[in-house]
Amino acid sequence: MGEKKIRLKLTNLKKSYDTAKGKFQAVEQVDLEVYDNEFLVLLGPGHCGKTVLLNMIAGLEEQTEGEILLDGKAINGSDPRIGMVFQKTALMPWKTVMQNVEIGPKFRKVEKTPRRKKAQEYIDLVGLKGFEKSYPSELSGGMKQRVGIARAYTNDPEILLMDEPFGALDAQTRFVMEQEVSRIWEQEKRTIIFVTNNIEEACYLGDRIVLFSECPAKVKEIYVNDLPRPRDVISPEFLKLRTRISDNTDLAL
Ligand SMILES: Nc1ncnc2c1ncn2[C@@H]1O[C@H](COP(=O)(O)OP(=O)(O)OP(=O)(O)O)[C@@H](O)[C@H]1O
Ligand SMILES: [Mg+2]
């Protein structure tokens, strides 16, 4: 295998907030390289700074220090090449599944026929065919997350950030969604940065798993996971990786 191409490079990235109680450091110092088309998982305990870190990459928050380089160039503000699936799916309740999914290209004034075609592709891909005209209130939690994923993909980002997208789902639905995301990623590779606080989810999905410390977020260790997909969560190799990581965590994740 040749050299891996670096898409995103975070150097000396820091974020602090001025609060009533003084300066609060949310992200300590993050140095990280993200390779082209890799499935990178950021694993860390609650409130360690994962969302803050993703928001900086998405251009929704400004870093206090450091640099975020995409293909070697600093990104300024939101970049259309970077998309996000939010921790809480913010669907518009007055819009149908189709209208929620096509919102990105519609906003960019893409014509109806091509944008609907693209939206339909991803609605089909996430398994929501037949629900195009449904409203969010008519969908289960898992289905709403699928809409959020289809919406992010329809924007065609080169780098997709996913912030604990399955955190609110029951264990069974969550596993189905993990299988889906892994399948979609295998079908059409793109760079994914997926945040979770769940070790099993991290081992199931990640090519590499970046383990974070407690707040302020700092990279503690990076694990390479080359187990074949779909991963067998009860194989000895899987359990070994899982144990290696859990033995190294700050908190019981
Ligand atoms: N605007 C803000 N002002 C002050 N503190 C903030 C702000 N945004 C986030 N924080 C703090 O930064 C820390 C990290 O928050 P963040 O939302 O990144 O955690 P997280 O790792 O995503 O947690 P969770 O797993 O619960 O989603 C928290 O202690 C939070 O209170
Ligand atoms: Mg968060």
**Order of the strands making up the biggest sheet:** 5-4-1-2-10-9-3-8-7-6
Please summarize the sheet with the most strands. 10 strands, mixed
Number of strands: 10
Measured distance between first and last alpha carbons: 34 Å
Portion in helices: 25-40%
Q: Give, in order, the helices and strands.
A: EEEHEEEHHHHEHEHEEH
Strand content: 25-35%
Q: Ligands in the structure? A: adenosine-5'-triphosphate, magnesium ion
Shape annotation: globular
**SS field, number of helical segments:** 8
Which features would summarize this protein structure in a list?
binds adenosine-5'-triphosphate; globular; 8 helices; binds magnesium ion; 253 residues; single chain
Report on the architecture of this protein.
The chain is 32% helix and 27% strand. It has 253 residues and is an alpha/beta fold. Helix 4 packs across helix 5. The longest helix is centred in the last third of the chain and has 17 residues. The two termini are 34 Å apart. The mean pLDDT is 93. The structure holds adenosine-5'-triphosphate and magnesium ion. Adenosine-5'-triphosphate binds next to strand 1, strand 2 and helix 1. The site of adenosine-5'-triphosphate (ATP) has 16 residues, from strand 1, strand 2 and helix 1.
